Amino acid sequence: MTHTKKRIIINNIVMVLSTLSALIGIGFLFWILGVLIINGVDALTWSIFTQEGAPPGNAEGGLKHALIGQLMIVGVATLVGVPLGIMAGTYLSEYGQKSKLSEAIRDISDIMMSAPSIVIGAFVYAIIVAPMGHFSGWAGSIALTIIMLPIILRTTDDMLQLVPSTLREAAFALGAPKYKVIIQVVYRGAKAGILTGILLGVARVAGETAPLLFTSFNDNFLNTDMNAPVASLTVTMYNYATSPYEDWQKLGWAAAFILSMFILSLNIIGRLFIMKKKGK
Amino acid sequence: MSIIIDKLFANATKIIAIAILLIVAWIFVVLFQHSIESINAFGFDFITDTKWAPNLEKFGALPAIYGSVVSTFLAMILAVPLAIGVAIFLSELAPAKFKAPVGVSIELLAAIPSVIYGMWGLFYFVPIVRDVFGGIGISMLTAGIVLSIMILPFMAAVTRDAMNTTPDILKESAYALGGTKWDVIKDIIIPYAKAGIIGSFILALGRAIGETMAVTFVMGNVHKISADLTQPATSIPVTLANEFTEADTELYYSSLFELSLLLLVISFTIISVAKFYFLRRKRLV
Known about the structure:
The structure holds 2 protein chains of 2 kinds. By secondary structure, chain A is mainly alpha-helical. Chain A has 12 helices and no strands.
């Protein structure tokens, strides 16, 4: 066999193997999506949106409590996390720039983005739940805020840096003070990017389960008091799926389907924003 | 007037930015404070002791550490070759019209919450492992496999991005010399993208070791070290998820905090290595 022939054969083997691994990978992933869709659509009924949790064996159970609880916990986290993240990102990009302090904050944020979220749950348990003596929706929101902050901060920072400095200079030349330049010119230029960061940040924390296990805990009934344990889709899903009751498992699949569709749409919308921006 | 607002705005942003550093420091301090009782009671034995018996007030973390290491190692062995294969397919092999849809669906699958991977694993993968390998299906092996599927999309997407940074002119020159696709991948693309690829793998490893929900469903929570992969096991995050709300004594509670601290230190170290030695400022995170 000539050297060339050998190289061609090896090449073909590798190409087949990598196509195969792509097929395996994609196959697994579509398997999961398929399972979600089949079980989720099967379990979706109107009563899911109108009924609260019910004891197993009672067909009338729903997810209303978890849907509303999820909205409250993630909503509060977003309301707190987004402005704080944008402000901190603004400091890095507009004031701190390449200073040592800014670089340190960037590095720490990057590391925190991949840090285990269950540890954040333990932290919030220690500073909020234990002193107050009970689980609460607030504690869950605080845990999610801490997870969301570095994501919003880093995307804001990156997106603001993409705004051309000539825009800032033009505004300064008109005599505008720096805060006005930032708010009226820089933010406007980076709007789509910041929004994408927010969407991805919300999508990320909406799927978090571990930090909620010991902060907001769970409730099988509707509770809108953030000062008490609040149900969330993710923890409900965990409890229902690991229960031995078939109707609870079914509700678990419905929760999984609703949540993943929500998170996937946020991701897709976020991507469309980025693409639109690039297309300009 | 506007000078005052200007100052206020500048200082407010600075304070919030610094607050983020302080929160991270605060996390370490709080976890350490709450671990002190356990550290005092067990010292270094906490890490080497294999007995975890809450009823006897005896807490040794070795089974959980062992479970974290072995399940992560299994996940990496399974996911690394697949991720490289997928990345090669996406960056070099796939026809142009497949690249975007396949790439985007892989990225989207990386966004699916880990609790869903866990649920899928429990209902669909546990029975398969039970039938094929024996045991009850809830095991170290299942945890490793589910974990590998969870980190695969992330690894494949980042590896593809790293491979895509190879300048076309380098590849074209190699093709012009008569290189096959594999020659170009092995001699040009992989060496060029090496740092990024290794970085992404280490980052995935850092994430896998802290991954909680995907494994909590399928690992069991058995504090035993067994060489038999089909046996149920536990890991640091699985122990935390299962036992945190059950801790009824000070020492139990403190031991769980020491586990959290251990997990944070381990993942912080791994992620930092990935970031500072391999990824630098390339924003691959």
